[in-house]
Fold this sequence. Notes:
Elements: E1 4-11, E2 16-25, E3 29-32, E4 36-44, E5 47-51, E6 54-58, E7 63-66, E8 72-74, E9 81-89, H1 90-100, E10 113-114, H2 117-131, H3 138-156, H4 168-181, H5 189-196, H6 200-211, H7 215-230, H8 237-243, H9 249-260, H10 264-283
Antiparallel strand pairs: 1-2, 2-9, 3-8, 4-7, 4-9, 5-6, 7-10
Helix pairs in contact: 1-3, 2-3, 3-6, 4-5, 4-6, 4-7, 7-9, 8-9
Amino acid sequence: MSSEFRTNYAATPIAPFSLLELENWLEPFPRHWHDEWGIAVIEAGVNRFWLRGGWYEAPQGSIIVVPPGEIHDGGLGSEPWAERMAYVPAEAMDAIARACNREMQPLVFAQPIIDDAPLAADLRVLHRRLAGAPLSDSVEASELAIRVIGTLLHRHGSLRVEQPRRGEAAAVERARQFMRARRSVRIDLEAIAAAAGLSQYHLIREFNKRVGVTPHAYLTQLRVNLAQQLLRSTDTIADVALASGFADQAHLTRQFRRTLGVTPGAYRKAHATTHKRRAVSVGR
Length: 284
């Protein structure tokens, strides 16, 4: 099986990501450095590399974190290996850190190899989502990046996140009311967090814990419910999409089908048929 090298780029409101995917890779990389943070998940084999004057071996399922400017090499084993890598600019990583705690903090990792299977799974999801179709919803894009990268910084790096304090329930309720009042317009996670009085990372955690879904999932449900109401009118589906806060008709269709199991067009047709039957019944 031949080696494969794929690259991609994803711009999100919180950070731009350069994405790399290697499969069945055998070619070693010489010593070099990047201006960005490198965050990788080893998908197969072992990546043997030199960093900070020492040798490391990252097995399948492990996470590698390489700070900007750190000279390293890679792929020096004798067997093929595979990885998913995301390069995050230093200023973007700082922005993610500030989304977790508004105080500026130095970002340091004690070790370059991290063994954390649940976080590795989340990083794979992040990589796949960013490498796939563009994320139409800014709240979803920010929430995903902050939740996953923020957890990496907090759990294994030097980042201190905001600690729970009294008034969390009221803060979450403020976020809910803010989203309810603005479900028909485009808003971002930063604005929701500001309305709640929490950092974005803290909002995601507290909202999920207290409501049972993330802010993005809650906002999407509000918009789908509004779209259901509007689809009973004569507006076009494209107009309904914009009036209910979605980026476009395709965005509405994806979320509507994911939530209700039918497309907006099928929902409208079914509602019209039911309404017509009721009208005929009443006429009799």
